[in-house]
Amino acid sequence: MNRRTFLHTTAALGVASLASTNVRAGQFTGKIRKSLKWGMAQKAAKDMTLTDAFKKLRACGFEGVEPSLLGHVTEQNAAEWIAASQDSGLIIDGTVGGRAEALEAGIDLTKKLGGDSMLVVLAYPPDQPFQKTWDESLARMKAAATHAEKQQIKMLIENVWNTFLISAPDMARFIDEVGSPWVQVHLDIGNQMRWGVAEHWVEVLGKRSQKLDVKEYDLDKAMNEGMRKGFDKPLGEGSIHWPAVRAELAKLNFTGWAAAEVKAGDWDYLADVAKRMDRVLDL
Fold first, then answer.
1. Residue boundaries of the structural domains of the chain
2. How many CA atoms lie within 13 A of 134 on its CB side?
3. What are φ and ψ of residue 63, in 5° steps?
4. CA–CA gap between residue 154 and residue 181 (Å, rounded)
5. Three-state DSSP class for 31?
6. Which of 47, 75, 44 is nearest to 65 (CA)?
7. Regarding the domain with residue range 26-281, which homologous superfamily does it belong to in the CATH classification?
8. At what angle do helices 267-281 and 242-251 cross, to 10 degrees?
9. Residue 97, pLDDT score
10. Residues of the chain under the 70 pLDDT cut
11. Running DSSP on this structure, what letter comes out for residue 40?
12. Which pTM does this prediction carry?
């Protein structure tokens, strides 16, 4: 090897070494994939085709998107969503908004879109006995589970603020009583901060949590300004103890989708949300 070849080889190795020191694989790199609720991007995408908007979301750092079945996607416009996903490479990983009276139809539309899950919110009418609501919800989910299995679409119940299933043990019990692998949990990391501790929900629900919603919550703002104001905090700057959440997810060897669910904004804002997801989830 002559001197010039030696110097070129040494320089190349040095650049490679420097590059390797600047690239760090996070704890959940390759395990958690980033999605977002379509409503977050609607304002930024208002003057664009759906395909171009999907391409912009990919440029922002997202791999997937979750549209609502209660206003975004219908049987009539499903072909447009499917084409935009195929043309852009942005995956419709799941849908939002399954309701008890239309679970089977929602499952079918989710299947058509190429998703693998439908987020379900269970109703909690305050004017009827709690046990009646529990029993009716249980029966409905059991009945729909057969169709979900046939279509290979998971129905994932979210912990929301309607005061039904507001403790992790209650949610776990409900899922276990349904008794189907096709009825599991879409765990919202943020919603439960009103009643509990995020990492405890991850711990108690365990493998029942199939997908995540990612948002922030600040207890001080909630106490001083009102409960919903607790969400008005950038991801990673509130009261959620993200290292503890990650520790519990690691114990489960969690893999799958995590969807941002925060306020809407422009493309720069959405790119920042994606970067914040990288930090709080260690991607």
1. 26-281
2. 12
3. -105, -20
4. 8
5. coil
6. 44
7. Divalent-metal-dependent TIM barrel enzymes (3.20.20.150)
8. 60
9. 84
10. 1-24, 98
11. G
12. 0.90
